[in-house]
Structures are given as C-alpha cells and as structure tokens.
Amino acid sequence: MGRPPCCDNGVGVKKGPWTPEEDIILVSYIQQHGPGNWRSVPENTGLMRCSKSCRLRWTNYLRPGIKRGNFTPHEEGIIIHLQALLGNKWAAIASYLPQRTDNDIKNYWNTHLKKKVKRLQQQQQSHPDHHHHHSFQTTPSSSNAAAVATTSPNYYNPNNSNSNSSNYLHNNNHNLESMQSMATAPSNEATTIPKLFQFQTWMKPSPATTSSAATAAAGSCYKQAMAMQELQEEQEGSAAAAAMASSIDGVSKDQDYHMCAVISGDDKSSSSEMMTAAAMAGHGEAATTTFSLLENWLLDDMPGQAAMSAAMDGFLEISAGYCCADPIMF
DNA sequence: AATTCACGCAACCGCCCAGGC
DNA sequence: TGCCTGGGCGGTTGCGTGAAT
What we know:
The chain is mainly alpha-helical. 62% of the residues lie in helices and 0% in strands. The protein is built from 17 helices and no strands.
C-alpha cells in the first residue's frame, strides 16, 4: 500500500487552474525564499494549494528560463533523437533543452511528435529509398546523437543542465541562436515569464549600463524588435531575420537580446509574466507601482496591446531606476 | 447558429528515490 | 536498519478552444 498523496489530509485544498493572484503570491514567496522546502510554501503563503501543486506550478510555468510556444524544427529533432535514445525520460530530455520543461516536452511528444514519427516511419516503410531525406531520423544510433552534439553544442551539451537556470541564462553564446529562432518563430512564441527573468539578468550591475542608458537601450532595442518583426512579416524569411539579428553590435549584443526578448512580446501573453516582473521589481514603492499596473493588467481584462504597453511603460521606468537590483539566485 | 469533435495544454495522481532521524 | 518525509518523475486526466459538420 502506497503512501497517501501529500494533499489527502488537506481540508479545502484547492485544485484546478491557478489564478493570477495565486501566481503572484507564489512568485513573491519564491523570490524571497527561493525554491525548495515546498511543504512550507502553502503554510507560509496561505495558498490553499498542496505543496506539490506549488512546486509543479513553479517548475512548469513560473520558473525563469522557460520558453513557451511552438517548438522549432531543431528542438523537434533533438527531442526525437533523445526520445529514441533515452525513451520517455522527459526530465533527462529536458536537461538538453533548458528552455523547455519536461512537461512541455512530454505534451509535445504526445500530441505532435509521436504522430509525426509514426508517419515518417510509415513513409520509410513504404518508400525506403527516401528516408534519409527527412530532416531527422526516427531510429538514431548513439553516433547520430553524437553528431548532433557536435553540431549543436548549445543544446546538446550534457553539462548544460537545467538544474540551475541561471547557468543557462548566463550562457551568452546561446543568445544569438535564440534570437534567430525567436525572430523566425510565430509571434505568439516565447513571450513568457522567463523573459522577465532574463530581464532581471540583464539588469545585473554593469559599469556601462546607467539608468538612462538602460532606457535608451530599451527604446533602441524596441525599434530593432519592431523592425525585425516587420521584416519577418514582409519576407517570412529566417535568413533575413538572422541577418538582422547578427547586425546588432557585438559588445551589447547579449544585453540587447535580453532586452529585446522582454520588450518585443506583442501579444497578451501569460499574465504571470507581468506578475513575475512585479516580483522581480520587489523594491518598495517601485514594486507597489508595478504591482498596481500589473494588477490592472491582470484583473481588468484590458485590451492586450494597450495594457501591455502601459504596464511596460511603467515597468521600464521602474526597472531603469532599479537596474542594479540585487540579483535573485534560484 | 448550434452542436459535435478533435486537439493542446495545464494540472493531478501515483509511484519511486534519497536523505534524515 | 528501517521508517518517515519531501521532492522528482512519468502517465494520465479534464477542461478550454477552435475546427468541422
């Protein structure tokens, strides 16, 4: 007989989708205390959630470094390779794709890739001569995996674990590639909480980055993001977008990327990303102001663009003043 | 326009493992 | 050494949404 679920004895434990208010509470708490000791989270926050639910909400949705939205063909290939190699070890597979959660990968496999692989296998059987023309193989050998490891060091480096997302966030070599994929992705991709944590990373003390410089960089980067988006809309060409991305000056490229990643979100993405910004801002009056903006955005159901714009205006003002905020270590 | 169906994703469940006592 | 507990993982479910009829 197994151990009862952790929430069995909980009276009035809430289930179902998380509300923005709950997200705010959870992120605020983790911002102060760090992840871990999940047992204490519901006790100390008053959340009517079981500890496991809090942990899952954090790891699958709220934690920094998560990329959401469509998977790139590159990511698909990696997942297919690794699934063939490792089986359904989603956590292990996720460790090679630090931006993706195991849950996301698992869902994507179950809903997309499994069918795709099956279809390709059927095609392979019916047209054995053509199988090697596919962009990825369905039964890779370890040497295939090694080949991917050689050609895609950013994703396929076994040392690149997602156990510490800040490691990933500080892996600046990855940024250009990420930016390129961002530029070529649909507009609803990659517009999530993680950006705001990237923003927080971007806000780390830098001798070259003053408050006004940060604001200026924000403006300039916003233009770049918009230009890139326009370019993409006009041409739908990854090469052009990649060229645009690579045209950004080298010295500030990484910082610009983080900034762009935050600013260029053009949809009403997850409410929790704004909430996370509030948690990140977490400094007295500024935090209160941010929370106020975010609460409006979260709760009043404003039109996405206008609300995002208003919230971002406030957030940028605040962040400019707190660009040397203490880094939060997760 | 209303209903049905299929799909995607967030969240839950149950089991396992590791560490502390 | 064995038990207890917290945390992690993989499988599964259920709801929301858009497409099809």
